Each structure stands twice: as C-alpha cells, then as structure tokens.
C-alpha cells in the first residue's frame, strides 16, 4: 500500500528507480514502522485532523465504552485507504491518457503536415509543367499556321493552273465545234466527230421528266441530294416544287438536326403539304418554329419527337390552320395541347394520341368544346390507360363523326367505355382493340347499330361466338375480321359468319378451337370466292381437308398462313400449288416434305415463302421450288439444320429479286453461300444468319462487295466472325446485330454443329 500510494502521489519520472529506493528504505526501517504514507514526500501528505471523542459521541450517539473499538478503527482505516487508492489511481490513469492523446494529436498533425507538403510539392511541379506545355503549344500552333498558309498557297496555285488549262481546253473545243456547225450550215460535210457530238447525251435524258419526277418522289432526302449532283438536268428536276410537297425526315431520323430542317422548310415552305418527322428525337424550338411557317401544311407527323411540348404545339397551331392529319403519338403533350387543337384546327380529321400519358379526361372534353374537332373521323388512343369512361363520354359528346377507332395496348378498356362512346358515335366503321382482355360480347352488342367494316381484337378470352352472331346480323358489309388469340371462338362462330358476302381478310391466329368444322363451311360460303387473306397460325385442328377446300374455293386468295398447323401435310400443300393467285404463304412448323414444296412452286407466282422449322425439307425440295419460282422476294428457311449451301445456291441462281432472306439456325451454312448471295442478289435488304456457326469474316467481305443495298444484318451466335470485321464491313448498315457466343440449347446443336439430345420428359 505504501509503495502504490507513493507512486500515485509522487508521479516519479522513472517509477522503477523510485520503487527500488523506497523498498531499500522499508528494509532498513523494518516492516513494523511502515505506514501507508511513508513513501510520500511530507510536503504532499494530507493533513488529517483528529476527531475528538466528543464529536463521535455526538455524531453516533455512542457511549464511552462503545465509541472506539478495534473493529471500527479497522473498517474506517480500510474505507479510507480504498478511497485514497481510488482517488490517486484515477489521477494516474488520467495523466497517462492525456499523455497518450497528446502523442496521438502530434502524430496526426505531422501526417497532415506531410500531406500538405506533398501537395504543395506536386502543385509547384504541375505549375512549372503547365507553363512549359503552354509555351510549346503556342510554338506548335504558330508552326501549324505557317504550314497551313504554305499549303493553301500551293493548293491555290495548283487550282489556278488546272482552271487555266481547263479554260484553254474549253475555248479550243468550243471553237472547234462552232467551226463544224458553221460548215454544216454552209452545206459542208458532217464529220464523225460532229455526229458524235450531236448524239452523245446523258442516258437519263431519254426518260421523260414526268417519269423522273415520279421516281424522285420515292427517294429519301440523302439520295435526292446525291441525284442533284449527277447533272444539271437532274439538279433542276430535284428543285421542282412538286417533289417538296411531301417531305419525309423519318427515313433519316438519326441524322436530322434543327439546322437541316430549318434550311429545307425555309426554302420550300409554300409548297409543303405533308411533313413526316417521326422518330426525330433531336429536334427543338427552331424546327417547330419553321414548321409553323408552312401555312399550307395539311399532314403533320410528330410521333416520338421528344422535344415536342405544349409550347411547341402552340407555335404550330398559330401557323398551320389547314391541318387535316396530326400524329402526336409517344409525345409529352398535356391537356393544354388538346385545348389548342379544338381552337386552332377545326378541320382536323385524323388524330393520333397513342401512348400519350399526360393528358386526362378533361383534355378530351376540350376536343368537343367551342369550335372543337367536330370533323374528326379517325382517333387513335392506344396505350392511353389514364382515359376512363368519362373520357370516352367526352369524346362521344364532341366528336360524334368518328369512323375509325384504334385502341390498342389498353388493359383498362372495358365494355362501359365502348358503350359510352357508341351512344352518340353511330358512324363508326372500323374498330381495333388489340390487347384489351376485359372486353366481352357486350362491346359488339353496343356497336350493333354501327355499320362496321373492320373489326380487330386480339388476346381476349371473353369474346365468344355470340360476337360473330352479332356481326352476321348487324354488319352485312364487314370486310376485315381479326380475332387472333380468342380462345372461346369455335367452329360454330365461323358457320355464323359464312353467309357474309364481302369478307376479304380473316385472321384466326391462335384460336385453338378452330378446325375443319368451321373452315370448310366458311370457305364454301359467300365470301370464299372473294377472300384475299387468311391467317390460321397455330390452329392445330386444321387438316389437309380444309387446305384442299381453300385451294378449290378461294380463287382470289393472295396470302395464306398455316404456321404450326401440324396436321397439314404434302396432300394439302400440293393442292395449293394450283392456285394462281397465291403470292405469300407461311407453312413453317408443318409436316411438309420436299414433294409438297416442289408442287407448291408450280404456280410460279409466289413472292413470299416461310418454311422455318420444317424438319422434312432438304436442299432438293428448295431446288425444285426455285426452278419454277422466279419472282421470289422474301424467303425464310430458319431453323432447318439439315439445309446446306446448296439451298442458298438455288435461291441465288433462280431468284434474283430477293430482298429478305433468313437462314438463322442452319449450322451447315458456310462462307460459300454468302458468296452466292453477294454474286446474284443485288437487291437484298434484310439478312439473318444467326446461329450459322461456320461463317467467318470472309462472309462479311462477300456481302460488303456484292450486297450494296443491305440495310439489316443479324449475326447472333456466329463465333467465327470477329468484332473487327463487323466494325469494318457493317459500318454503313442501318441495323446490325452480332455476338460471338455459343448457340443456345433451344437451337438444337452445340458450338461445333453437333445435334444435342432431346431432353427427357418427366413421367
């Protein structure tokens, strides 16, 4: 205790030496004379006052014999010793913590000082380097200017010399031909040179100007600018005002900037009647200002123009009062724009607000208020899920002359919406409700008073045969019926519409309950002979019997889709070979073989053919088909792994008009087939070679040399085509897709072209 109290109170600089000295003193004096404060300097000892017995008696009320006992003294001494130890120990701990904190703060300050010194050093170095770089930069700029001046002088001298030589040559040529003409007028002979001079003309000059103007109307703006550089005659024709009455910027939407639009519209604004800016996302205020200066504009397409807002539309509305057609789909317009439409475009007939999500039912009320858009006959509200029953009621109140209604991608559309619209819009002739699953037969009951000509509905499980019954009774002049993926439509419904006389297009894709029992009565009905398009995609109950009936009855059929009709075989396809009207056919996923395909080509008039996923087709079948079909333009033979280069060779050799070819998923194709295409198919626009694992960079080189009009090229899962070749040979394509990954398992073969085993079906 004495040693510990001494260390705590004295706080020696070297505690070990202090303890050694005090231990020696204790050994000299003996342990009996040891007191707890014997190691503390007398000046630092605490002065303790003795407590008299009278105080203790007064405090504790003890008697004389109880006042001081050995136990009480011992306890008091222990209590006091403990408190004293605690007091000095805490002081000692505080002292050492303070010293530790001081050392830590010193270390932090030194670290900061080192960082500051480092940054200051770097700053000085950078400043010196910057000044050096500025000096050398100035010297380089001065040297470049001097070199440019020398180059300009040399170029100018060369140009002047060339111009002088050309001028002298022109003078001599002019004088020579003038002398020949003079001799001819005087009755002299006409030399071969003179005859050649008179007969040599541009080949294009033999084409009438009216025909050239018609051709130039189908040319995009970039190609039109190139045509203007061909000759002076063509330049004058490209400046004809009739060409600039219809301007289409959407074909070059990725290149269009405000400057281009402003320059063109500023020059041709009096003649512009139709203007298409679809997808031009980089246009801003200057372009819309130029549009407002086209006073005679009648047709304006601003779809997908991200820069369009209510202020831009206000500017356009002030300058284009004659507007009849307006497309604002996929823009950010609000109720303010709809109010402008009703005020500024009283003659508006066609309006598209597809996928515009910022206007409300109140905005639709503006369409019919005031002068209003009362002449509106076409309205597209596809994707406008914010429109409620009140919105459709507002449309009906203000735009009762609507004839064409387009409402796709709207899962919130219900029967009540159509009922509210049909109450006053009795002139509706065409309705399109794709991806509207909540509509039912009630919708067609509400439209019963309208003389419908076109009905399109898709992805609906509530439409039943009752709707077909209503069409047969209330829509005698209907021409277009599209009821794809409506699972409750059966053969009975087809029998109900069989008496209709004017049906030209019938689409029953993915209606799984349709079979021979409905197709045969319909084809035998009044519209069988006039039907032009028939889509039976994935109607698995259709068999050869229906196909044979179609071939015998539908003499005007131009398009037929039998995709994934598994029960259709060569027997039915051979019957289609006798149809002279058939132009486009899709028999992908059927059981057709080479014999049926060869018979299909007998008509020789098919332009579009799709036979993807036909496992029984080989090169021989394609060769037989191509021998009789010279007008083929579209051919997709995807996912037929048994086909080889011979297929493409037959297509290229016989069908020179091909514009779209797909051989995706054909692992046996090599670079040789691309050589065939490049050599013969000059008009090819679309090509899909995804999954052709044997193609290499050489294939791209062939296409780059031969297929100058190729716009879209897909090369997924082509591991032997390098990215460097893709960048080199596909830079000018509108769209190119490529990856060098392994083919996915669903293609049915591995990276080496080996067939994968079919997955085992769980029992």
From TrEMBL:
One GO-annotated biological process of the protein: SCF-dependent proteasomal ubiquitin-dependent protein catabolic process
Region Disordered, annotated ranges: 736-763
PROSITE patterns noted in UniProt: FBOX
Signal peptide region: none
SUPFAM superfamilies: RNI-like
Residue ranges of every copy of the F-box domain listed in the record: 201-247
Localization (cell): Cytoplasm, Cytoskeleton, Flagellum axoneme; Cytoplasm, Cytoskeleton, Microtubule organizing center, Centrosome
Annotated keywords: Cell projection, Cilium, Cytoplasm, Cytoskeleton, Flagellum, Leucine-rich repeat, Repeat, Ubl conjugation pathway
Keyword Lipid metabolism on entry: no
GO cellular component, as recorded: centrosome; SCF ubiquitin ligase complex
Main location: cytoplasm
Function per UniProt: Substrate-recognition component of the SCF (SKP1-CUL1-F-box protein)-type E3 ubiquitin ligase complex. Component of the nexin-dynein regulatory complex (N-DRC), a key regulator of ciliary/flagellar motility which maintains the alignment and integrity of the distal axoneme and regulates microtubule sliding in motile axonemes. Specifically targets CEP192 isoform 3 for ubiquitin-mediated proteolysis and thereby acts as a regulator of microtubule nucleation activity.
Family: Belongs to the DRC6 family.
Description of how the protein assembles with itself and partners: Component of the nexin-dynein regulatory complex (N-DRC). Directly interacts with SKP1 and CUL1. Interacts with TCTE1/DRC5.
Name of the protein in question: F-box and leucine-rich repeat protein 13
Gene source species: Nothocercus julius
Lineage: Eukaryota, Metazoa, Chordata, Craniata, Vertebrata
